[in-house]
Amino acid sequence: MSDTPATPCGQSAMKLRLATPADLDLLRHWDEQPHVIAADPNDDWDWEEELARNPDWREQLIAELDSRPIGFMQIIDPALEDSHYWGDVPGNLRAIDIWIGEARDLGRGYGTRMMELALDRCFADPAVTAVLIDPLASNVRAHRFYERVGFRFVERRQFGEDDCFVFRLERAEYPCK
To answer: For the packed helices 110-123 and 140-149, what is the interaxial angle rounded to 10 degrees?
Structure first.
């Protein structure tokens, strides 16, 4: 994966940059926010260790709006990722984790813009055929968001302690391909 940003589908002052160990306090703070805990209650991101390593199969990114950090996302190649979280999946896929850091930034279109930038980044690689996402089954608001972006429901699946819905966006269905 490249640390060079892809050209976004639309334009805005939002940009993505690689997360670094300097973001540790910010990410810990965001991880303690009630809306982030509600969306991701059982994961320990092990920030100190994970921010210090940069495997080829993963990008951890901070979304900034006019240089102000507003959210986090992780883009992985689920076939190569070392925990095998997604199980046995074919190559040429990507999977995204995404959240807005502060509650005051929810409902302002920032998540949509972050997702557009992430999808542009994923599909900039011509080999990538589809993108996966796995919100909690109980997170109906997230389901509607992903469906508006173009994702389609695939299955209900248990990931560790989390009951999730798996959604998939095919390259052919992405408007900016």
So the answer is: 50
